[in-house]
Amino acid sequence: DVxxxxxxxxxxxxxxSEEDKEIRRHSFEVxxxxxxTGALLLNPKRPTSRWLLYCYDYDExxxxxxxxxxxxxxxxxxxxxxxxxxxxxxxxxxGANGSxxxxxxxxxxxxxxxxxxxxxxxxxxxxxxxxxxxxxxxYQLRVHAQLLLCRLDSAQPQxxxxxxxxxxxxxxxxxxxxxxxxxxxxxxYKAWYQRVASDAKESGVxxxxxxxxxxxxxxxxxxxxxxxxxxxxWSKEEDxxxxxxxxxxxxxxxxxxxxxxxxxxxxGTLRKLSACCRRRQTNEYEPLATxxxxxxxxxxxxxxxxxxxxxxxxxxxxxxxxLDNEDMIQRMFKQYELAGHAQLSTRFENTFSGVLxxxxxxxxxxxxxxxxxxxLRILLNRSVDYLDIIEMYTIAINHCREILYSEDHGQADSLxxxxxxxxxxxxxxxxxxxxxxxxxxxxxxxxxxxHGEEALSDRLCKHHVxxxxxxxxxxxxxxxxxxxxxxxxxxxxxxxxxxxxxSMLNFLxxxxxxxxxxxxxxxxxxxxxxxxxxxxxxxxxxFFFSLAAAVTLIFLIILACIPRPRPHR
Length: 569
Hints:
By secondary structure, this protein is of the alpha+beta class. About 55% of the residues lie in helices and about 15% in strands. The strands form two sheets. Strands 1, 2, 5, 6, 7, 8, 9 and 10 form an eight-stranded mixed beta sheet that branches.
């Protein structure tokens, strides 16, 4: 049955090559790798996946493979100036129409060293386990490298660099991207800032005073950060192959800052008058899953810790079960929706647009360089993304602070939640970046400096590592500064809430102290004694209020004479 199946016929067509007619050790090793690769790719139990594979063969004269040369212009902001940038068109993955290979399996079975250009770059987008192992068999990667590929989603930043360039080198890089909606929101903010700056400049030239009302027109910003692990391999010097694999992306942050406008309403005023409660310790922010939901899911998996036995009827149990199932289904669809948005935001053409634009120009520095230069250029472009991320967080945090410190806002709790979310997200980014800066960058710097500065590609590799180090040092410093700013904002909010509570309590205490004489007299004349002369007196009513006013005045004088603590200077 197996020999008669269509899968086995295809397996034989892929493995049995007419080129390897002579029996020798090399051909036997190639046949064994073909057998392993075929067994992985033609597994009937292998689930269908939608992963993509791109292959580029290039040198200073030609670029072949998945490259599509059409590039269009798009308006964007660069350095605060509105201009046009080149946007790379959709590339042709392996197996699509126009590709040199019929499908991915044919590419993985074929000779990995046979190419038209001097350098080959292969990139796999969220491949499945079988394809990862097939890539490892095709390029003869070490066993521990293949094991690392299998757990790339949870891998920590690490590197294995060959100093003599006689073996494969690898780097695990924690990549982070700004999603499409946040990128457009960022450009909209830059347009607003440029307009306000030009208006302020014109007003300064005319001698006019720019009012604070210009800040109220600031548009809201969408914060959407997608995080994934990127693993890079580059071969020994004579092979000139770069292999990059990106793991499945997932959202780290997704929330929106409020627009700067007058938010005062009757409900905001009422909340302001009754704002004597401390900030709620919550971790939720829109629209990602909250920590309470994560704890709820964890309780479902491990049993929920201590089991509290509640006496409920069977109908109540069924209703609660249906509600829990609906919540789980809603969260599941929400996770699928976020995963789809993350995939769209990390398209190959967007994440590698800088490299693809350089491949467009003949005789460019990248096309004239080596495969190591290509690998370091990819890492350098990914480090620049962190500078855009910290700039966006800086704007969003300061925006929330300005609205929070204004007197006409009515959403202090939601702003503090967003500031707390920004603090957690920056700490998460620092947790991913700092191991790369401390462990991986020194290895790359030593490797780039070990070979001297004889060739142009060696000097460029050294400069790429130096620029990458500067980018990460700047990001770490700015991120730590923004984390401290978030802590100061939350501390100030808690302090102001406590001061407002104390002010309200002091006001109530003063009122109680002033009303106390009238309460004492009311309790005195409300006693049921048999003989009370004031009850039958014609001026008893006037006497009561005169006595109450006099005693209240005495209490007021006593209160005014009480010394108050002076503020420390």
